[in-house]
Amino acid sequence: MTKDALLQEFKTRYQQEPEHIFFTPGRVNLIGEHIDYNGGKVMPCAITLGTYLVVSRNTEKKIRLQCINFPETADLQLQSSYTKTGKEWFNYPLGVIDEMLQRGYELSGLNMLFYGDLPIGAGVSSSASIEVCTGTAISQIFGLNIPGEEMAVLGKKVENEFIGMNCGIMDQFAVAMGRKDKAILLNCDTLEYEYLNFEIGDNILVLINSNKERKLTDSKYNERFAECGRALKLLKQVVKAENLCDISSEEFHKAKHVLNDAVLEKRALHVVTENERVSLSKDALLNGRLEEFGQLMYASHASLKELYEVSGIELDTIVEFSKSYPHCIGARMTGAGFGGCAIALVKKEYFNDYAEKIKPYYKERIGYEPGVFASEIGDGARAI
């Protein structure tokens, strides 16, 4: 949908001239999965698909939330606080508005129209994109000057407390702080970060949507969060650590007997080794060892499948095909799993061939085709 069409849609719906338009991207995580809430390092990047928000103030002290992608709308009186109701999409912006009010910011009525070109439920952070887009808009409209890092923390708080999803900081940070052609190496415990040049030579980053929708709060995400908490508590009896990711593989193997539980052992082993793979990946990327980076992607997927058990036949089929395809150097599921997306590094000139061949391969096994997109790395949240 073009920017002009979006502005026109706003005028049609609200009978008012739009004042501002904002954009916040989605993200993919190159490596470092399910370790953001375990105090580890992750390597996400913002993509060029995302959430658009057209907004104007109103004088009726009303919060009006509409979205081109969903039929549900909200028309609420501006009040001092809100609570989540049901599972509608507008709980995400409403949670941000509530958090702004709890912080003592004075807001006026707002007419808001959202539109997203991210595949919903595909694991590329449409919820974080909506949250950060709402926060960025409010910050700019009311002159609050909230910096990107703080906006990410605010979005995470909304996700954890308002929505009830025990996610880490990665998604909100990546969409708030993304930079064109850069990966972010983020320490999720300290929020220290650095930008890495994502130089992949004659390869292209491919996003493959399994088209199996996953609903995170209904999934086992919170269960994994709890399992990691239990494992950490037990390991702390014998290892000095604040987070699971503070523990090295060597320390883990010496201490794992205290877990006395095969499931907890698998979960913790994934977290510890995945955190180490992120450091190895940084080194491989910075020194142009792309084949090694690709192998680390495959190793990450195997760990998520076998130890963390968050993959599934759809994502495994994508990675299996990618492994057999001669011009692909690495692939893995990205995001929380249980459906959603995978990413692959494919030689640019073979992208069309890869897309053409994966579709029937996948359809034969799963029953429908995946979506295949060439993905570019873009900038974070901004007014446009």
Automatic annotation (TrEMBL):
Mg(2+) binds at residues 127, 159. The record marks 27 as: Transition state stabilizer. Gene3D superfamilies: 3.30.230.10, GHMP kinase, C-terminal domain. GO terms for molecular function: galactokinase activity. It holds the Pfam family GHMP_kinases_N. The active site is at residue 171. Keywords: ATP-binding, Carbohydrate metabolism, Cytoplasm, Galactose metabolism, Kinase, Magnesium, Metal-binding, Nucleotide-binding, Transferase. It comes from the Bacteria. Substrate binds at residues 33-36, 221. Residues 8-57 form the Galactokinase N-terminal domain. Residues 283-349 form the GHMP kinase C-terminal domain. ATP binds at residues 121-127. Its EC number is 2.7.1.6. Its main location: cytoplasm. Residues 91-178 form the GHMP kinase N-terminal domain. Pathway: Carbohydrate metabolism; galactose metabolism. It is found in: Cytoplasm. Catalyzes the transfer of the gamma-phosphate of ATP to D-galactose to form alpha-D-galactose-1-phosphate (Gal-1-P). Belongs to the GHMP kinase family. GalK subfamily. NCBIfam families: gal_kin (TIGR00131), PRK05322.1 (NF003705). This is Galactokinase. It comes from Terrimonas ginsenosidimutans. The lineage of its organism: Bacteria, Pseudomonadati, Bacteroidota, Chitinophagia, Chitinophagales. The gene is galK.
